[in-house]
Specification:
By secondary structure, the protein is an alpha/beta fold. Helices cover 31% and strands 25% of the residues. The chain has 12 helices and 19 strands. Strands 4-3-5-6-7-8-9-13-12-11-10 form an 11-stranded mixed β-sheet, sandwiched between helices. A 4-stranded mixed β-sheet has the order 18-17-16-19. A two-stranded antiparallel sheet has the order 1-2. Strand 6, helix 10 and strand 7 form a beta-alpha-beta unit. It is globular and about 70 Å long. The structure holds zinc ion.
Length: 437
């Protein structure tokens, strides 16, 4: 087994915790001293009082709203979240802004190198090596993830083919033309490229993609396996965000994700109280502190990502903690007719049991006093008309078993549901007061 950083990747757990506590105290003091946000927020808290990782749990969390609020101050556009002199900033990035005003992220050369190094861990763990020619099928714009992928690929010694400013057909031709052997994309777009290639009479397996790193949306295991089957390749997941950076990735054992330690202190907290660290096997909210970034320090950032904590050890020999599953955003969890519902469960069922479903959409509406939940599904053209009714009935039954909710299933004509270039928006809650981001 080889590691990106053999020392850190196999470090004794106690030693990792010791380093993380020490880094935490350093970044805590730094943030307090150099940013307006933490100067105000951490007033009266003495860094010397943080003696253990348990003490960290008593400190306040940071959420996106506060970042937006402090950003309104000078200097434009970063305001009170900036941790370095504005003249040292070398790159502007931002969040997508789907949940409100975007957060602007200042990167200095130093902080950017820190992010890239964390990303190298993710890519190396997923088996990316200098022999790979990676096709990145997006324009990067002001969004951080693909820039990170691009620079980390370079640092690893891979060859990177940027695939922005092309349509999907153009990208498929570029993959063939360059004989790319790897890809980095959202699961949604991976499926879309495969569908489009098939429509062009090209078997996605013949594209020669050997390895794929996915990000951007929760990927059920069944979707990961579906992508592996379509391309005949290895598919890996990772999780991160614009503010904290990418903080966990999948190794070649493909059982859950490793936290990137000691770059991040990741706490997985009980979602009701946000105080107690959950036990192994339990679901909690990930709270992340990037431990080495000074341009934009974050202390205990509430990612609102729901993850399941896993056992510590892994056959790959890495000693970092693992999460077994990414459940999705806490904002995506909804109460429907009193039942807690996660759209990811529906995707898991469809990708696992219904290969004939090409695309789908979940719609929740309130009719009178009742919540009505619908699945609009599009079947592959190969499904004969006579099989449509049985598929509809099977979908109803599987969804009832999997979610405890009775769905209205509507079969839509081929090609009628929207296709997505980046992230899928397959869940629409039309009830009053619900956000659809
Ligand atoms: Zn592993």
């Amino acid at each position: 087994m080889s590691y990106w950083n053999p020392y850190l990747d196999t470090l004794d757990r106690q030693e990792l915790s010791r380093i993380e506590l020490s880094y935490f105290r350093t970044i805590f003091s730094y943030a307090k001293e150099h940013t307006r946000l933490y100067h105000d927020k951490l007033k009266g808290i003495d860094p010397a009082s943080i003696r253990s990782l348990e003490d960290v749990k008593k400190l306040p969390l940071t959420d996106k709203m506060e970042l937006r609020e402090y950003q309104e101050m000078a200097p434009h556009p970063y305001g009170g979240i900036l941790g370095r002199d504005i003249e040292e900033v070398t790159a502007f990035r931002q969040t997508s802004g789907t949940t409100g005003k975007p957060v602007y992220v200042p990167e200095t050369y130093e902080s950017w190198q820190w992010r890239i190094e964390a990303w190298c861990h993710i890519m190396y763990m997923a088996g990316f090596r200098p022999r790979h020619r990676i096709f990145l099928p997006f324009g990067y714009n002001v969004y951080v993830a693909f820039w990170e992928g691009h620079y980390a690929a370079e640092k690893l010694g891979c060859e990177l083919v940027p695939g922005g400013a092309l349509d999907t057909k153009g990208r498929i031709h570029k993959i063939i033309e360059t004989r790319a052997t790897a890809m980095m994309n959202t699961p949604t777009y991976g499926l879309h490229i495969a569908e489009e290639a098939t429509n062009m009479g090209i078997d996605p397996k013949s594209l020669g993609i050997e390895r794929m790193l996915c990000a951007g949306e929760p990927m059920p295991e069944a979707t990961r396996k579906k992508l592996e089957g379509l391309y005949g390749c290895h598919v890996f997941d990772h999780i991160g965000g614009t503010e904290p950076c990418a903080w966990a990735g999948m190794c070649e054992v493909k059982e859950g994700l490793h936290l990137i330690e000691p770059f991040f202190l990741v706490e997985i907290l009980d979602r009701e109280t946000l105080q107690r660290e959950v036990e192994e096997g339990e679901i909690g909210v990930a709270v992340v502190t990037p431990l080495g970034r000074r341009s934009f320090p974050l202390i205990r950032f509430n990612t609102k990502d729901l993850v399941r904590k896993s056992k510590g050890s892994c056959a790959c020999g890495r000693t970092s903690q693992k999460i077994s599953e990414v459940m999705g955003r806490i904002d995506d969890l909804r109460k429907i007719r009193g039942v807690l519902f996660s759209p990811k469960t529906v995707e898991e069922i469809i990708r696992k049991e219904f290969p004939q479903v090409e695309e789908f959409e979940i719609v929740v509406e309130r009719r009178g006093l009742m919540d009505v939940v619908m699945l609009r599904a599009e079947l592959t053209p190969a499904v004969p008309v006579g099989s449509i009714d049985p598929v509809r009935e099977q979908l109803k039954e599987s969804l009832k078993i999997g979610t405890n909710l009775s769905f209205h299933v509507i079969i839509e004509p081929p090609g009628s549901l929207p296709r997505y270039q980046l992230k899928g928006k397959r869940f629409k809650d039309m009830r009053e007061g619900q956000r659809n981001d």
